[in-house]
Amino acid sequence: MDLGAITKYSALHAKPNGLILQYGTAGFRTKAEHLDHVMFRMGLLAVLRSKQTKSTIGVMVTASHNPEEDNGVKLVDPLGEMLAPSWEEHATCLANAEEQDMQRVLIDISEKEAVNLQQDAFVVIGRDTRPSSEKLSQSVIDGVTVLGGQFHDYGLLTTPQLHYMVYCRNTGGRYGKATIEGYYQKLSKAFVELTKQASCSGDEYRSLKVDCANGIGALKLREMEHYFSQGLSVQLFNDGSKGKLNHLCGADFVKSHQKPPQGMEIKSNERCCSFDGDADRIVYYYHDADGHFHLIDGDKIATLISSFLKELLVEIGESLNIGVVQTAYANGSSTRYLEEVMKVPVYCTKTGVKHLHHKAQEFDIGVYFEANGHGTALFSTAVEMKIKQSAEQLEDKKRKAAKMLENIIDLFNQAAGDAISDMLVIEAILALKGLTVQQWDALYTDLPNRQLKVQVADRRVISTTNAERQAVTPPGLQEAINDLVKKYKLSRAFVRPSGTEDVVRVYAEADSQESADHLAHEVSLAVFQLAGGIGERPQPGYKAAEITHNINNAFGPGTANEHTVL
């Protein structure tokens, strides 16, 4: 390690005084002008991680659904998964080190993780379409090269595409070809094969309006379009030619405002979807004949996918271990439908994609989606081999079902939630089952619910168990919630501390919106009284005009609840 060269280069990417950042599930995110030093240092860290794992590591420059003036960075581990938790701590430590401590921190990480500094390192880099991304990407490259790492700069990619590239490179091409054409061809071939099996004629189910959030998704979908055009016609909106990234559009805007994005006219019963800024989330929606807006979120996407996979397994005659992984925020109706109607087991984890992904790996087939539309399906290696064999050896209907499952497996991006991949999976399933968007929506009716937040002096007074569904401390809070829940039909409620600010998040659902609102308010009062609430006591009552305001101001991007009835 040439410490002199690192010190010299680091001075060119100097850290602003007093800036402290935390590496979270989404990596680092803040205003783009504060990130130059972080990018350089993440280039350094990626080289150390690559040497330690003897694998290719990914670095993605993006801030996903954040405003255009923000940016961020996250590292991608060898199988396309998120960075290991111990390395998240190293990332935070390195990003926040003062210039004079840089050498010591790098040596500490190398020693703690037993990094062989003579080992070769290879890093792949991708970026989104933000004006700041190209320059910040160059800072990552500076960090990689000063530590002697090799790199490949993919340039403009969606976040899940970079995850895919890392996975391909570390499986010797077994998972796929680590090029953008390889990605397009693998997914499109599987999609076209699947839609050939669809019995519906004409283009009734084959046309889709896509809101690309003025982001990278538009660029990549346009490049990919001709590969799958015989199976689906897509009409792109908010393609980046005019509007600002994520401004009044994108999956996050649509779900938190419960309305279509700006710049998209919707006729009744037209099928529409929205990506987020880096195309790793997707939500669907439509207007019914009366002009009412209907959102189809991650819960309903998981239900459609897992039900279809279960049907194929029954057809083939395979009793594989299939599971759906949700968080406590999943609507109770989706959980009941999966368990009672489809007989698919449902498991709950703590909030956060890494928890869902990890749990899904425990099954032969694991499907996970957050309500915000981020998710995918994972298939064990043994299952993939078994299905491949079945597609070659079985007869007639069974063989056809096995072939479908083989193509579905290829259509999923198993490295990460991927809006393009998920869109093609959904479109294929709707075509194969002959379902309209309304029929899909009608699988079950969401229970009305409400999310609120309560300001507290210290959020750490709340601790939870059972995948955040039960409060352990402060004493008496869970008992109070249990008593309140008993007052309402089909009800449940839980509280959890925010990961970022001194607030406690409250979720309640019940058989009517009025009951959900009352329950949420009563639970908020219990939190205020028992967990050290500060400021004004929670007030009852909701006016339609205030709801959107409350959702967006109270919960911020990505946390507002998409089921809220406006």
Automatic annotation (TrEMBL):
- The residues that the entry says bind substrate are 370-372, 496-500, 505
Q: Which cofactor does it need?
A: Mg(2+)
Q: Which reaction(s) does its UniProt entry say it catalyses?
A: N-acetyl-alpha-D-glucosamine 1-phosphate = N-acetyl-D-glucosamine 6-phosphate
Residue ranges of the TM segments: none
Residues engaged in binding Mg(2+): 64, 276, 278, 280
Coiled-coil region(s) at which residues? 387-414
Q: CDD domains from the xrefs?
A: PGM3 (cd03086)
**Domain Alpha-D-phosphohexomutase alpha/beta/alpha, first and last residues per copy:** 51-97, 118-167
Domain Phosphoacetylglucosamine mutase AMG1, by residue range, is 178-283, 297-434
Spell out the catalytic residues. Answer: 64 (phosphoserine intermediate)
Q: What does this protein do?
A: Catalyzes the conversion of GlcNAc-6-P into GlcNAc-1-P during the synthesis of uridine diphosphate/UDP-GlcNAc, a sugar nucleotide critical to multiple glycosylation pathways including protein N- and O-glycosylation.
Record's protein name? Phosphoacetylglucosamine mutase
Naturally occurring in which organism (per UniProt): Gorilla gorilla gorilla
